[in-house]
Structure to design on (855 residues):
């Protein structure tokens, strides 16, 4: 523990230097030297600090980000809002005659209102007759969109997109290559058990369809036949009556989106799909609460870790404490010294730990959600404040104990 | 001498030991609670996912096509085949009956409502609300209140009928829900607005006078329909016991490679394993076996997404638990290191008196072991209570702690304590006794 200075300055020089230097230079020097001389202990204290700050940062980052991540997962359940033309579902037993369609630009309005990331799928319905006179529901939709929104649809083969094909008129002898249709599992057994092309007629117009693939959902879709929207419309003249929309965001944002939609589409009803909304809210709330409890526990444990390490580190230096006191340092100065040391450790630990924590959160995001968790710098002040507070607390606690002890006792090694 | 050294060390240095013991206890508490929560979270979230409603539907095997747009049935309701209501309790007799949370039969029929001047055709769906059924000696309740938890009913609480004895004090009050054997119905909110009816009003349907017990907000096609007890729908249709389809809500295991296979192509062993796993496919298969002439199918929108959501949440909790274990291991290590570092003088003295490195290390390890076992036992109890508390407050159900966890937790505690003390003990043992005794530590 020899001092690195080699040449001793003359008393005059020392006096001059002392006059120039502020009291703080000695203070800073003590801080730095204390850390340098006990590198091992200082490093372990810093390590504890860094780990705790990192864990706390990661947990806070996750807590904020996971909800957004889970919401995207929940969007796999499909639409949470439906836009329905007024009176389209009520009172239409005369099969489509009075069914009002949504305005043709409704889809465009929805997308421009809610932003490009919103998924919206139009559906148009009609009841057609098969060759042997059975009624079957035919739906016109946009296959690419439906495929994006309804991940659970089990489809053997999606129909290829068809561009600019004109439909034959009212005659019943189709001459053009048949249009591809997606046939529901149960509908298939009625119209095309052998997966041969089949005819459907709607108000005297016949269309020749080729089953491209089978659709299985276990719900109403199984009894229907899906066509491309434009083919459907030129065949039946019926436009979309329902648009299913998946609105992203928190319940408040969804409410807001629904209000905007209702304002933008005065001719339509905007309704929440309560099954999806309630289910999501329920699961998300529970998950958030669990995550919150876990995060609190983890942060608490890491604070404990810091506390244990720093208390040890301060106790370990009771000799310094005693010597300082014996040399005439005031209680305030000693407290200030230890507090400054703890604060410096806290700040250094928080800064380093913050970056490590962001890395950990990003890793968890990638492993679990296959998407990185975006760093949230708003968390930093909390981590910093928490680290410094815990560090100060763990410095003040042992000093309170040591203050009662006479310096002589410590110096004598008792 | 060895036990005495250890004993005296505990007796005389209670404060230092306390610090280490507190650290171990808290660390183990957090670890236990987190492990318990993480192991149980899958089950808990699975149950919460049931709030998405039924994931299976049973239909008659020879069912005709549904011709339905927006909840309006365009097919004569008496067409087609029906399931038999008396077969339904058998659902409780299947292998995975504990996993079946509830089921509701549905019988949609078309009825005429309103005055005789302008009869208005609407769909009336007969179902169970909260029906008491018995299978063998087992009594249970089931219905849409379980399978369709998002249905919201507004009605008069005081006037609520309810089957006698069906509303225990612990259950949610029967506000507006009709009784299962009554002539009360729920009116979908949009239909109610169109007809200008409110809860408590009378509604004439096909010559029958019914009471509207509540207004239903379902956020789906039911908003335009009437929902009635199934017996009423059967009475109107004139087919007692008829059921069009049954929605079943079951706890399932996320799909994997085995679940997707066709049971017909399996070897007997694989088949047994498949049959005895609560996959949505195998439960559907068993439901089909239980109910004659039926076809059970998963509702893919609900069934297929459960797995992903469940896997994500479980994975998340696993990683968080790892973080918690890491943090508590570090806390314990730090506390132990501090406790040992302070005792270098003691080590010097022991070595000066002729103790070997091994003896000194053995004493420290014995102390660490005692601390770990003590702290581990207390921490396990604390952690169990904490986990229970978390389960109660978040999921309002118990989080069960496997007793098997106790030895594992103790082992982890001892291991972590040893690991934490190891480095410090080595340094303490290596320290030259002369320096220690001269106080130049």
């Amino acid at each position: 523990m020899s001092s690195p200075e080699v040449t001793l300055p003359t008393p005059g020089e020392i006096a001059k230097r002392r006059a120039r230097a502020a009291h703080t230079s000695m203070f800073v020097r003590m801080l730095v030297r204390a850390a340098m001389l006990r590198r091992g202990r200082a490093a372990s204290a810093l390590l504890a600090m860094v780990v705790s700050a990192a864990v706390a940062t990661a947990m806070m980052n996750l807590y904020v980000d996971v909800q957004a991540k889970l919401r995207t997962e929940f969007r796999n359940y499909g639409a949470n809002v439906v836009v329905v033309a007024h009176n389209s579902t009520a009172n239409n037993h005369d099969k489509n005659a009075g069914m009002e369609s949504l305005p043709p630009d409704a889809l465009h309005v929805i997308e421009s209102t809610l932003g490009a990331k919103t998924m919206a799928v139009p559906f148009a319905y009609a009841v057609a007759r098969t060759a042997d006179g059975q009624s079957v529901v035919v739906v016109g939709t946009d296959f690419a969109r439906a495929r994006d929104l309804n991940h659970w649809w089990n489809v053997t083969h999606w129909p290829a997109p068809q561009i600019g094909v004109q439909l034959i008129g009212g005659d019943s002898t189709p001459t053009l290559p048949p249009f591809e249709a997606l046939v529901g599992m149960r509908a298939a057994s009625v119209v095309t058990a052998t997966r041969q092309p089949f005819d459907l007629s709607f108000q005297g117009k016949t269309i020749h369809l080729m089953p491209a693939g089978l659709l299985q959902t276990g719900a109403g879709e199984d009894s229907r036949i899906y066509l491309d929207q434009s083919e459907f419309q030129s065949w039946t003249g019926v436009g979309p009556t329902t648009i299913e929309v998946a609105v992203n965001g928190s319940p408040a944002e969804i409410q807001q989106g629904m209000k905007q939609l209702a304002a933008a589409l005065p001719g339509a009803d905007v309704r929440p799909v309560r099954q999806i909304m309630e289910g999501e809210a329920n699961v998300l709330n529970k998950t958030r609460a669990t995550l919150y409890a876990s995060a609190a526990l983890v942060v608490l444990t890491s604070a404990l870790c810091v506390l244990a390490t720093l208390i040890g580190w301060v106790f370990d230096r009771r000799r310094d404490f005693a010597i300082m006191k014996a040399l005439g340092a005031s209680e305030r100065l000693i407290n200030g010294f230890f507090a400054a040391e703890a604060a410096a450790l806290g700040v250094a630990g928080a800064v380093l730990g913050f970056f490590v924590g962001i890395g950990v959160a990003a890793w968890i995001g990638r492993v679990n959600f296959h998407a990185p968790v975006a760093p949230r710098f708003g968390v930093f002040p909390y981590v910093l404040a928490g680290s410094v507070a815990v560090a100060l607390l763990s410095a003040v606690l042992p000093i309170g104990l040591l203050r009662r002890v006479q310096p002589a006792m410590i110096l004598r090694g008792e | 001498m060895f036990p005495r050294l250890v004993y005296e060390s505990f007796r005389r240095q209670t404060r230092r030991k306390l610090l280490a013991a507190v650290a171990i206890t808290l660390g183990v508490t957090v670890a236990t609670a987190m492990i318990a929560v993480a192991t149980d979270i899958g089950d808990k979230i699975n149950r919460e996912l049931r709030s998405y409603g039924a994931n299976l539907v049973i239909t008659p095997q020879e069912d005709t096509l549904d011709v339905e747009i927006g909840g309006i049935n365009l097919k004569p309701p008496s067409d087609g085949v029906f399931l038999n209501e008396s077969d339904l309790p058998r659902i409780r007799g299947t292998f995975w009956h504990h996993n079946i949370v509830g089921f509701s039969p549905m019988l949609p029929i078309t009825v005429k409502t309103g005055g005789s001047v302008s009869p208005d055709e609407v769909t009336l769906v007969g179902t169970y609300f909260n029906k008491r059924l018995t299978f063998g000696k087992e009594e249970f309740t089931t219905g849409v209140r379980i399978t369709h938890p998002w249905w919201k009913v507004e009605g008069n609480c005081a006037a609520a009928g309810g089957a006698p004895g069906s509303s225990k004090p612990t259950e949610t009050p029967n506000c507006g829900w009709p009784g299962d054997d009554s002539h009360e119905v729920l009116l979908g909110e949009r239909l109610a607005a169109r007809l200008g009816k409110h809860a408590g009003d009378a509604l004439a349907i096909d010559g029958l006078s019914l009471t509207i017990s509540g207004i239903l907000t379902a956020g789906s096609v039911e908003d335009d329909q009437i929902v009635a007890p199934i017996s009423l729908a059967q009475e109107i249709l004139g087919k007692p016991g008829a059921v069009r389809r049954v929605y079943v809500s079951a706890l399932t295991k996320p799909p994997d490679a085995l679940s997707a296979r066709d049971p017909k192509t399996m070897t007997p062993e694989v088949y047994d394993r498949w049959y005895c796993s609560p996959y949505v496919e195998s439960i559907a298969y068993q439901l089909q076996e239980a109910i004659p002439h039926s076809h059970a199918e998963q509702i893919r929108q609900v069934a297929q997404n459960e797995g992903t959501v469940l896997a994500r949440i479980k994975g998340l909790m696993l990683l968080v638990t790892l973080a918690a274990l890491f943090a508590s291991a570090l806390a314990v290590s730090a506390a132990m290191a501090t406790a040992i570092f302070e005792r270098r003088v003691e080590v010097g003295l022991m070595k000066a008196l002729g103790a070997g490195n091994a003896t000194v290390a053995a004493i420290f390890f014995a102390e660490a072991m005692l601390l770990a076992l003590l702290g581990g036992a207390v921490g396990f109890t604390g952690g169990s209570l904490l986990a229970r508390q978390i389960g109660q407050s978040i999921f309002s159900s118990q989080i069960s702690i496997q007793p098997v966890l106790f030895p594992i937790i103790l082992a982890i505690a001892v291991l972590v304590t040893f690991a934490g003390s190891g480095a410090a003990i080595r340094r303490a043992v290596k320290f030259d006794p002369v320096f220690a005794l001269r106080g130049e530590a």
